Amino acid sequence: MKFTYTDKAKEFIDENNIKELYIKLLMPKGSCCGVNTLRVDIKTEDSKNKQYYKVDYDNVVTTYFDPQFDMVLHDRYDEIVISVFGIGNMKKFISETEINPVSMS
Asked: By the 8 A CB rule, do 53 and 67 touch?
C-alpha cells in the first residue's frame, strides 16, 4: 500500500513540522440504503497503537497504517491520495481516494 500526498498536504506537513501520520480504516455501520464506502481516519498522533501498524516510508512523512487496509482492499488500490481540507487552524487530513470494498469483477 502506498500513500501519496497532494501539494496542499505537503505544505501543511512542512508548516506544522509533522513527522508521522497514522491512518486507520473505519468500517461502515450496517445500513440498508447507504453508500458502501469506507471512511479513513488520519491523525498525527497514535503512539499507543504504533507497534500494530504497518509502515510506509516516504520523503514527505512516515505513514503508519492499519493492517486492515491489506485485508479489506486486497490490492485493489495502488495508492491512496491524502490531502488537507479546512480553513486556518481548522484544517484536517482527508483521503481523496474513495475506498469501496465491493468488488465489481
From this structure: yes
| Cell numbers for 93 | 487530513
Task: Give 66-89 pLDDT, tens digit per residue.
Answer: 888 777 776 666 788 899 999 887
Specify whether the CB–CB gap between 56 and 4 falls below 8 A: no
Q: Are strands 54-56 and 39-43 parallel, antiparallel or unpaired?
A: unpaired
Nearest to 61 by CA among 10, 24, 6, 7: 10
What is the Cα–Cα distance from 32 to 100, expressed in whole angstroms?
Answer: 16
Please state, in angstroms and rounded to a whole number, the distance separating the CA atoms of residues 79 and 41. Answer: 16
What's this model's pTM, rounded to 2 decimal places?
0.79
Classify 68 as helix, strand or coil. helix
